[in-house]
Design goal:
Elements lengths: L1 H9 L6 E2 L5 H6 L4 E2 L8 H11 L4 H20 L7 H9 L16 H13 L4
Parallel strand pairs: 1-2
Helix pairs in contact: 3-4, 4-6, 5-6
């Protein structure tokens, strides 16, 4: 796999980060060092715990990382239905963190995307 190949060429001290929230569990399991996360903007505790547990050697903590990953997957998906950063801005608005205003050429997310984001955040017990 690509993570293994990169580590082989660069050495174990080379830090590899994924920019894709949805594949972070598998990436970490294959030797990655973590994730530059969009979802962490709206679910920092869940993302932090997920990362911590995904590197653990404890079977219980590995299972916990899988459980958290299942909770986060709908959130990850909802935040990428439309062009970033509009979905995460809307999610942050729901959490009273900021406004969902974006500058042109970006636009606010469509109603159908708003519904998916609300559903995902609710499912993850973030709202």
């Amino acid at each position: 796999n690509r993570v293994d190949q990169q580590r082989e060429k660069m050495g174990a001290e080379f830090i590899q980060l994924t920019g894709e929230d949805g594949n972070a569990l598998e990436f970490n399991r294959r030797g990655g060092s973590g994730c530059i996360s969009v979802t962490a903007n709206v679910a920092p505790k869940l993302c932090s715990d997920f990362q911590k547990f995904s590197f653990s050697s404890s079977d219980n903590e590995k299972k916990e990382s899988e459980r958290i990953d299942q909770i986060l997957q709908p959130v990850h998906k909802s935040l990428f239905i439309e062009s970033n950063p509009s979905p995460v801005k809307y999610a942050a608005k729901l959490l009273n963190l900021c406004s969902d205003e974006v500058r042109l050429p970006l636009v606010k997310v469509m109603k159908s995307t708003q519904d998916e984001i609300k559903k995902a955040l609710s499912s993850a017990k973030l709202i």
